[in-house]
Amino acid sequence: MEQKSLNARLALQLAAPHTWAASVTPVLLTGAIVYRDYGNLNTVLFPVLLLICILMQSAVNTLNDYHDIISGADTKNDAVEEQDAVLVYNDIAPVKARNLAVLFLAAAALLAVYPVVHGGWRVLAIGLTGALIVVLYSAGPKPLSHLPVGEVISGFVMGGLIPLGCYTALTGVFYPGIMGATLPVALGIAFIMLTNNTCDVDKDVRAGRKTLPVLLGRPKTLVLYKILMYAWVTVMGAYIIIFLPRLRTLTVPGTVLAALALIVFHVGMILCFKQARLIKDALKRPKLMKRVSMATFLYGVSLSLAAYCVHLQL
User: Fold this and answer.
1) Buried (b) or exposed (e) across 280-314, using 16+ Cβ within 10 A?
2) What is the pLDDT of residues 219-251, one digit of tens each?
3) Residue 309 has pLDDT above 60, yes or no
4) Measured between alpha carbons, how far is 147 from 213 in angstroms, rounded to an integer?
5) Which three-class secondary structure string do you get for the chain?
6) How far is CA 112 from its chain centroid?
7) Residue 183 pLDDT class (50, 70, 90 cuts)
8) How far apart are CA 231 and CA 225, in angstroms?
């Protein structure tokens, strides 16, 4: 059978926009914190940072698909939907996906020159560390995503290193404490990974992967999943509550925005609990991924709105 060309539509599917919440949310929240603390935000640098993180996320997603097909983990018998196995369903040569991932990384590296010039060598060090982890996470004979550390690494990099790098680039200040401020996002991203790996247990066992759910088994993983979900919700709720005393000084417009933030947060929690009830059904993984990603994204938006309201004193 003749293999198809990799067009823009398929390239976008490989980039998996439904997972971008994991890279967009940390940047949005970091921008809100910078604006709250300094009263301004570089409107050129901020979108550049956002695009860099999206490109890095797209590279990870594409490399995952590439590695899955060359290792034989992805087949039409295992894949639930086309978006879960773009290369399999569209008969695309794996090398084209690998080249696309390299292109994503190259574009991110080119854009990163501006933040490095603006923020100094610390930004470069953080960026290189993140890039190295991206490659190790998705490539090589033993990708980190196939080991029982995937959840921790993804949470640390996207919920910790991204905020640290963005904060340093935007302010010129190296402030590790920002990683504590974005802890709920880190937990949410780890939650997304656990959702993915839990639903892929059977396929991962056949592929010889040693993810955390594979080692624990499905019953114990479901218990861990629920514990992490409630811990995540508790931490996010606590962060929102921290803002409430400061929101009392707001005028009517600010109160409306703050109320909107809490409504958005509530919607995210509804999505979170709904997807928890679906986790036992591995056939619904795409829906699960979208819901937990959306819950994470809505949380970041809600807390960012609250941060803007506090600073503006509307």
Assistant:
1) eebeebeebbebbbbbbbbbbbbbbbbbbbbbeeb
2) 788 788 778 777 777 777 676 666 555 555 555
3) no
4) 10
5) CCCECCCHHHHHHHHCHHHCHHHHHHHHHHHHHHHHHHCCCCCCHHHHHHHHHHHHHHHHHHHHHHHHHHCCCCCCCCCCCHHHCHHHHHCECHHHHHHHHHHHHHHHHHHCHHHHHHHCHHHHHHHHHHHHHHHHHHCCCCCHHHCCCHHHHHHHHHHHHHHHHHHHHHHCCCCCCHHHHCHHHHHHHHHHHHHHHHHCHHHHHHHCCCCHHHHHCHHHHHHHHHHHHHHHHHHHHHHHHHHHHHHCCCCHHHHHHHHHHHHHHHHHHHHHHHHHHHCCCHHHHHHHHHHHHHHHHHHHHHHHHHHHHHHHCC
6) 19
7) confident
8) 10
- The burial of 37, by beta-carbon neighbours within 10 Å (0-12 exposed, 13-18 middle, 19 or more buried), is given as middle
| Residue 25 exposed, middle or buried by CB count within 10 Å (0-12, 13-18, 19+) | buried
**Residue type present at position 237:** G
Please give the Cα distance from 165 to 178 (Å, whole number).
10
Extract the tokens encoding 131: 């890039």
pLDDT at 84 over 90: no
Rg (CA), the chain: 20
**CA pseudo-torsion sign 135, 153, 70, 2:** negative
Supply angle C-alpha 292, 138, 170, rounded to 5.
70
Residues 6+ apart with CB under 8 A from 48: 111, 114, 115
Residue 185, both tokens: 């996002």
CA 90 to chain CA centroid, nearest Å: 26
Question: Among candidates 214, 201, 95, which has minimal Cα distance to 149?
Answer: 214
Q: Which two tokens stand for residue 8?
A: 């823009």
